[in-house]
Design goal:
By secondary structure, the chain is mainly β. The chain has two domains: 157 residues, SPRY domain (Jelly Rolls, Sandwich); 141 residues, Jelly Rolls (Sandwich). Helices cover 6% and strands 38% of the residues. It contains one helix and 27 strands. A seven-stranded antiparallel beta sheet has the order 1-4-13-6-7-8-9, with no helix packed on it. The longest helix is centred in the first third of the chain and has 20 residues. It is elongated. Pfam families: SPRY. InterPro entries: B30.2/SPRY, B30.2/SPRY_sf, ConA-like_dom_sf, SPRY_dom, Ubq-SigPath_Reg. This is SPRY domain containing 3.
Length: 345
């Protein structure tokens, strides 16, 4: 081939490549029925159905949401990000270079078929969001964050290919149905008075031998003596606007030495809540209430994996703050602390 023909051949190749690249990107899906923005599972509950959007997330479009219309038989719905040519017979998050939040167990799957506890489970009507922080896109890395009903659950750093990360939804049981919004927007809601566990350790005033990962608190101490206590204390106290919180026991460990309650800001770090003065707590292992003493009183049932323990304050009507908003003042000598098991206040 002479030089002129070679040049002509190259021009044709470049023209064809530009034409091909200019075509609208095609979304891909298998074992799913798509009706507008609604996806429904069409498999036999043994095979995965997966949807991958036609365009990756970017600085201009960095977030999407999936609303669970029906959880079907198992609620095996996954929301996350995958490479462009991800295998559609695998849930998002199972294969390398993909990440996903799974609704049925609240786990995060980050390129591995074995997930790690990450956030709460999701049910019918819940919205699961997924987005990227675009600060490090040029470096091939990004922080992928997930939300539930508009509140951030947590984030994880993920490597990106040159083609980017594409929104993906996986389903795996009969009757599952979701609505996808690829143009959704998300704005961080700030509420300084609210006790929350999210991806930021700054929301916790003190952490001793406790690791924070999303909404998960994990004990990482030695656990060999009575002094090896792990303590997580929120930065902000309960208030009349946010007077209640809950904890779900994901793993009871060896002895379920889990205590939930309230304590003063300077509470000793090596003492379970309730053991020392200025604290009160419900202990899951024996169902006893400890109120400023190392000896507890029978109070309620023992708690196990999957149980939800809640704690709140029933403030008196004349509750006020001091002039500078630093200390609590009551006209009564005490106020009521309500502690519940598997029952919100």
């Amino acid at each position: 081939m002479d030089d002129v023909n070679m040049l002509h051949h190259r021009c044709l190749l470049n023209l064809r490549r530009r034409i091909r690249d200019g075509r609208p990107a095609q979304e891909r899906y298998v074992r799913l029925q798509k009706d507008g923005n609604v996806l429904s599972y069409q498999g036999n509950s043994e095979e995965v159905g997966c949807y991958v959007a036609g365009h990756p997330l970017s600085k201009g479009n960095c977030y999407f949401e999936v609303t669970i219309v029906d959880t079907g038989v198992r609620g095996s719905i996954a929301v996350g990000l995958v490479p462009k040519f991800y295998r559609l017979d695998h849930q998002p998050g199972w294969l390398p270079h993909s990440v996903a939040y799974h609704a049925d167990n609240g786990k995060l799957y980050n390129g591995n078929p074995v997930g790690k506890q990450f956030g709460p489970k999701c049910a019918q009507g819940d919205r699961i969001g997924c987005g990227i922080h675009s600060e490090n896109l040029e470096a091939g890395l990004t922080n992928v964050f997930f939300t539930k009903n508009g509140k951030e659950v947590g984030l994880v750093e993920v490597a990106m290919s040159a083609e980017g990360l594409f929104p993906a939804v996986g389903m795996h049981s009969m009757g599952e149905e979701v609505k996808v919004d690829l143009q959704a927007e998300w704005f961080l809601e700030e509420d300084d008075g609210m006790m929350m566990v999210d991806s930021h350790e700054d929301d916790w005033g003190r952490l001793y031998d406790v690791k924070v990962s999303g909404t998960l608190l994990e004990y990482v101490g030695k656990g060999k003596s009575i002094m090896d206590v792990g303590l997580a204390q929120a930065r902000h106290p309960l208030t009349t606007c946010c007077h209640y919180y809950e904890v779900e026991i994901i793993d009871a460990g060896e002895k379920c030495y889990i205590a939930l309650g309230l304590a003063t800001k300077d509470y000793p770090k090596n003492r379970h809540p309730g053991w020392s003065r200025g604290s009160i707590a419900y202990h899951a292992d024996d169902g006893k209430i400890f109120h400023g003493s190392g000896v507890g009183n029978a109070f309620g049932p023992r708690c196990f994996k999957g149980d939800i323990i809640g704690c709140g304050i029933m403030f008196p009507r004349d509750y006020t703050l001091d002039g500078e908003g630093r200390a609590l003042r009551f006209s009564y000598q005490s106020y009521t602390v309500s502690i519940e098991r598997n029952h919100p206040l």
